Amino acid sequence: EGHHPPIAIVMPCKGLRARSLDNWRSVLASCYPGRTEFIFVVESDKDRAVEGIQQLKREQPDKTIKLVVAGLTWHCTQKIANLLEGLDSCSSDIQYVLFLDDDILLHPGTALTLV
Prior knowledge:
This protein is an alpha/beta fold. It has helices at about 20-30, 50-60, 80-90, 110-115, and strands spanning about 5-10, 35-40, 65-70, 95-100. Strands 3-2-1-4 form a 4-stranded parallel sheet.
């Protein structure tokens, strides 16, 4: 096997919908063989997504799952602010960042194919 650089998957999240946990679990089930950080970004710690993200952290303690609270923005859209905050939250050795919407069901091989 070749070298697989460390990556981060950043997802701005808002709310907790019927399929949110299934979608997020599909992202966590990524078959990327290198180190992966999963960064979930919300506007506020009062967002309903927080309880779902905390549940995933308990279910999958072997994964590097970060919950980032971006805070309310006034200078751009909230989604862009969340993406930027997620990028800032990546570890310094991350070589690739994948930005994903939180409402997609991800194929397990997507990250490997993109990197």
